[in-house]
Structures are given as C-alpha cells and as structure tokens.
Amino acid sequence: MPSIDKVSTEKHEGDAVCIAFYGNQVFSGGADGKIKIWDGDLNLIKSIDAHESYIYALAINSQGKVYSSSCDGCVKFMLPPYDKVEELVRCDDVIQAMYCEGDVLYAGDDKGVVSNWENDKMLFKYNLVEEVKSLAAEKGWIYTVRDLDMVISEVVQGKSGKYVTRGVMPGKSPLCLLCPTPEMRHKYVALADRTGKGFVMISNSPEEQFKVKSEQADCHEMIINAFCSDGTNLYSGGYDNKVKGWTDMDQPKLKALGEVEAGSCVNALCCGTANAVYIATSDGVIRRAKFV
C-alpha cells in the first residue's frame, strides 16, 4: 500500500509552493522566498534566501541549474553547489510557470507571453494571449493552459516569435507530459478537466487529432493542483490533501495505484527515484510518499 514514509523535520514559513528533483536532491520553493535543498530522505542540506517574496515556480535544466520565479518580478538562478543566487531578468509581469527542455528555459507570464532562454540569453518571445498557469515544451511545441483550454503551439523555425496553433483541448491547469519516447515527443499529455476535480489524458499526436485516450472524472473530491510523472506512472494531488497514483497509460481506463493522505493542501509534486513522490503542501512541510 502507498504510504508517507518521510516527513521533513524543518519547513517553509507559509506554503511550500513548488518542488523539483535533480541529482538525488529535492528543491522546494516557498511563500517565504526561500529555496530549500534536501537530500532524498528529506534531511535539510541548506536554505537559501532566493527572493524577497513568494516563489511561484522552479525549473532545473540538464546541468542542474536551478531557476526560480517570484512575485517580486524576478527570475533568478543558481548553479551547483548552490551557494550564489544570480538574477536572470527583472520585469513587471508575473511569471507563474517555468519548464526546462534540456538546457533551454521556458517561462510563461500572466499576460500570456512565453519566453525561452539559453545560456542566460533570451532567444524569442511568443505572445500566446492567455495567462500561462502551467507550461511544458518539447521539440518545437509549447503547451500552455489556464482555466478553459490547453493550447499546443508550434514554433515557426527561423522566425522570431512566430508560431502556429497545433491543437486546442478543453481543460485547465495543471498539465503534465507522459510516457517519453526515444525519438518522438511524449505519447500523452494529462491535464485537469474543466471541473478541476478530474483529468483527461490525450494523445500527443496531430495525426490522432489529439484525441482523448482516457478520462478520470471526479477522481479527487476537490480541485487538482499538481501532477508529476516518472515516465511510467502519473500522480495527482490537490485541495483534498490527497495524492493518488495511476498506471496502465495505454489502457482506456487507468489503473489506480492507491492514495496517500498528505495532511494539508497539495501545492506541487515531483517524482524521485524508486517510486518516490515528493509533496509540497500548504503547511510548509515536504513529504515523501512511496507507491509500491
């Protein structure tokens, strides 16, 4: 049965808002403006005063470079061994979502603008019109969602800031790419349905017209806030304080792996190793669940 097997002995002041995993370490960002770094067993390694206020999002590139965004209007970054915080950009817009594809950072703001960065230089900006609450990107496609629809935009190569819309699917934040393939894009995309209490999994293929492969209606008692995937399984968590696991991605009906009670509202999830799921909650605590 799934269970919570580790709980951090220290916590953020206020919500633990976002969480990421890299190199057997867990990174959490909080309402206190701090980034905390934990080992896999949730022993605190260090706490960093990264921002002056609430941290919205974290993203880590393939080299372990940690990006963070905050309501102070800044995107900042740290390089291993994470002893210095540097500023990437300061702006008036609220960057609520970030995603790293390899070493390229994508950042989405409340005005609907997605920018991408490489080697600390902005490549392009894409005005996707609607506020970006959740974001992913791969192989020239950008996936964005707010409250009504997920939009898949394809970047027009060689043209600054130009894109075409590949698909529009009903649903709301959050979203998650599922089932990576060696050469192609991920097979599926999961996103909350418009009620927020269930989710749909769609085929990530224009040839299949991005058709719905599976629906899990009303699978949470309250709104879903977070997804994560280890490549094989999907995990969902939300306001009902629960984290649930799902498997059999290729089947019309997903198989439930069970659930754990997190003790507080689930704000964010990330997958570790050996079926571990790390949970950031509104009480500022980080928890580890094992789905075995």
From TrEMBL:
It holds the Pfam family WD40. The keyword Cytoplasm does not apply. SUPFAM superfamilies: WD40 repeat-like. WD repeats lie at residues 9-39. Keywords: WD repeat. Coiled coil: none annotated. PANTHER family: F-BOX AND WD40 DOMAIN PROTEIN (PTHR22844), F3I6.5 PROTEIN (PTHR22844:SF387). This is Uncharacterized protein. It comes from Stomoxys calcitrans (Stable fly). The gene is 106088726.
